[in-house]
Amino acid sequence: MLDTSLRRFVWFYTKSQLKLKYRYTALGFLWNFLEPALYLLVLSLVFSVVNGMNVSDYAVFLFGALMPWRYFEKSVHSCMEAFVGGDWLMKKLYVSPYALPFTRWAIASVEFLFSLGVVFLFFSVWRASFTIHLLALPIAIIPWAAFGLGVGMIAAVLFTFFRDVKTIVQMALMLTFFSSPILFRPDTLAEGSVQARLIALHPITYFAALFQKPIYHAAWPSLTEWAVSVLVAGAALAIGIALVEKYKNQFYFYL
After folding, report:
1. pLDDT higher at 201 or 144
2. Which of 9, 28, 38, 63 is the most buried (most CB within 10 A)?
3. With b meaning 16 or more CB within 10 Å and e meaning fewer, what string describes 66-103?
4. How distant is the alpha carbon of residue 124 from its chain centre?
């Protein structure tokens, strides 16, 4: 799937799209620092009251899962329109269908890596010290990245054939976000309650823990959290690849 020509195309096309995206902006790449910082600040001020936590403590907790979630969300949204938005390229050149979602995903990944600088900013202001557990973060990014690419390719295939899928995907992402332990701590729920049981079954609970534990709890993610995250991400990626392989010859008739 990722042969040399495809890798070279994704590399150069990603660079050109990044330059084009920020060409007419006043702050350019600085938005990758400002946007998550402002987003985090607003949510911290509002939901710290709901969770009964002081703003600085809640901001560190929120940041733990909010940053990878934003990366996942952006990957899905941008990949979803990859085939439809890149129809001109597919019609004029022989381009592997994988190149388009891979490029969208690569752009989201680059922007996410730049925004990680906010981690050190908030930690230096609101956290007394760094711990060795932060070393897990580079590995914790991998399941999130694979999950975003997989769901993004699934959404891209569906959106090519059914344009109203976009609204459904947006609503599904919103529901997933507000029902997962990103905005609130699971230990605030009554043990054995319906809500607590649902959170235990929520796949994002395990993905969120990969960042929340090293950042907020100063602990290593458990083996179960790693295993569930890797399995769910791998399944999404496999389904996405299978759908692209099955329908790639039909894309041209719907673009």
Report:
1. 144
2. 63
3. bbbbbbbbbbbbbbbbbbbebeeebeeeebbbbbbbbb
4. 24
SS (H, E, C) 175-198: HHHHHCCCCCCHHHCCCCCHHHHH
Report how far residue 73's alpha carbon sits from residue 115's, in angstroms, rounded to the nearest whole number.
14
Count CA within 13 A, CB hemisphere, residue 167. Answer: 3
Whole-number Å distance between alpha carbons of 223 and 229? 10
pLDDT tens-digit series, residues 217-249: 889 999 999 999 999 999 999 999 999 999 988
Which burial class, exposed, middle or buried, applies to 147 when counting CB atoms under 10 A from its CB (0-12, 13-18, 19+)?
buried
Distances (CA, A) of 212 to 64, 80, 143, 221, 223: 4, 28, 14, 9, 15
